[in-house]
What we know:
Blueprint: E1 27-32, H1 42-49, H2 57-68, H3 76-93, E2 100-104, H4 111-120, E3 125-130, H5 137-153, E4 161-164, H6 172-192, H7 198-201, E5 202-209, H8 213-217, H9 230-247, E6 253-258, H10 273-280, E7 287-291, H11 300-316, E8 320-323, H12 331-346
Parallel strand pairs: 1-2, 1-3, 3-4, 5-6, 5-7, 7-8
Helix pairs in contact: 1-2, 3-12, 6-9, 6-12, 10-11
Amino acid sequence: MTEPVLAATEAAAGGPEHVEVPVAYDAILLASFGGPEGQDDVLPFLRNVTRGRGIPDERLEEVAHHYRAFGGVSPINDQNRELKAALERELARRGIDLPVLWGNRNWAPYVGDALREAAEAGHRKLIAIATSAYSSYSSCRQYREDIARALEETGLLGTLQVDKVRQFFDHPGFVEPFVEGLRDGLARIEEAVPGIDIATEAHVLFATHSIPSEDARRSGPAERGFGEGGAYAAQHLAVAEVVMAEAGRGAPWDLVYQSRSGPPSQPWLEPDINDRLEELAGTGVRAVVIVPLGFVSDHMEVKWDLDTEALETAREQGLVAVRVPTPGVHERYVSGLVDLVLERRDGVPAAERPARTGLGPWYDVCRPGCCENVRLGFKPAVAGLAP
């Protein structure tokens, strides 16, 4: 017998891969990571991010200087305010009466605040959009666990139902801004390096957040057999292939990783973008285009790890480097997020849902054991079958 899905609407409670019956949602929950908004916020924020791991403040300060270099303010909250407003405009343009409530995992406004706001307004059925496109513990399951925990802590478990849109790594609304960005990035390289041969002297680096190798291996459903990199690496590679086919002009490319943390003894996905830039400098490459494929907006990992560290490494190696934009509030991206909500509101059959790779459309209800974190174990989570 299939276990019901925690806090799900009736249509999703039995755990179908794709929910193909309409659901009358009351509101949209925009769920994000959160970030500090002043110097006094930085350490409390980092304690929230690393809660339960026992990391001393001295080690947190090693990361804090990234935020302190920007006045203690992460760009992410303002970007989410812009995204919330853009979603509201797009919904209004289409005549769709669904309020957008915003809550973060690690800083105010918290997910619990948004859930209380929903309940006080009389909303009962929510559809969540997490600001993360791929499958892994930190980019999908942790959001689902945090929503479940917030429901419990607010006393709203049993009152509110919360579904979640599918992971949207290969939805056209997410992919097309990167196609546009790569096309423009290569044109900028040609302006900066007259006469460059894109096919032999340029290189494209698709950058995403590194995660522990064990988490990567366990990302996505085990029965899909994605191998050592799991669904996380497979999804990135599949999207990169689409972007290159449409805009790469024959340039060579790699998937690289950034923002590694954790003890040196713990394996994380590689190669690191800075190591790869150093390798490329000795191969005849004159210029690189960095595509932040793993990110939906220009938050701290983009502004520091790419715009500061990676671009500095490129300069040191004598490489011309261009970093293309993240989707942010690109018209196509915002429209695509609304389309994802409407898939669930209208019960669109899976066969009619757009997906730019052969891996999708991804699941509406995550499969049992999907994206396990072996260090923390399984915790209650919405929008997926237990465990």
